[in-house]
Task: inverse folding
């Protein structure tokens, strides 16, 4: 089997090259690799808003949880592509996942966190507590 080597590329067999040429560029795999979402965090009017741009995911793909005062956002997305021709069947499976966590400040209300997903955008709203709602406790000095 013939191999080629250039300074910019690792050694690659001609068979692999021929297979790639036959199947062409794999747009589905390339798209899935780029699916790491961007996250914007906005603080306004007593609320933290997180906007997670995750097109291609579905609502059921997400998990949003609070553990030890950390907000954890994760998702897993699986895609199956099947192409049939009279001479061959091509079947591909791809999976993409991500997980991000954010330490929550002490001034948020954990039981009032809300999340919605629509049109590729996951919105998470976290309410801050009011100063008068925060518990104040005096500690005696002994």
Result:
């Amino acid at each position: 089997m013939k191999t080629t080597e250039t300074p910019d590329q690792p050694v690659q067999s001609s068979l692999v090259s021929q297979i790639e040429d036959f199947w062409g560029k794999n747009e589905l795999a390339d798209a899935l690799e780029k699916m790491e979402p961007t996250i914007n965090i906005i603080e306004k009017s007593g609320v933290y808003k997180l906007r997670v741009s995750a097109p291609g995911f579905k609502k059921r793909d997400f998990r949003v949880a609070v553990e030890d005062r950390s907000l954890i956002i994760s998702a897993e997305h699986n895609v199956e592509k099947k192409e049939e021709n009279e001479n061959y069947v091509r079947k591909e499976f791809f999976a993409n996942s991500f997980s991000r966590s954010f330490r929550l400040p002490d001034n948020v209300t954990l039981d009032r966190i809300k999340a919605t997903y629509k049109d590729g955008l996951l919105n998470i709203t976290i309410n801050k507590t009011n100063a008068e709602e925060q518990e104040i406790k005096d500690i005696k000095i002994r």
Summary: Residues 47 and 127 are 5 Å apart (CA to CA). The first helix runs from residue 14 to 23. Strands lie at 3-6, 9-13, 38-44, 47-53, 62-67, 70-84, 89-103, 114-118, 121-127. Confidence is low (pLDDT under 50) at residues 1-5.
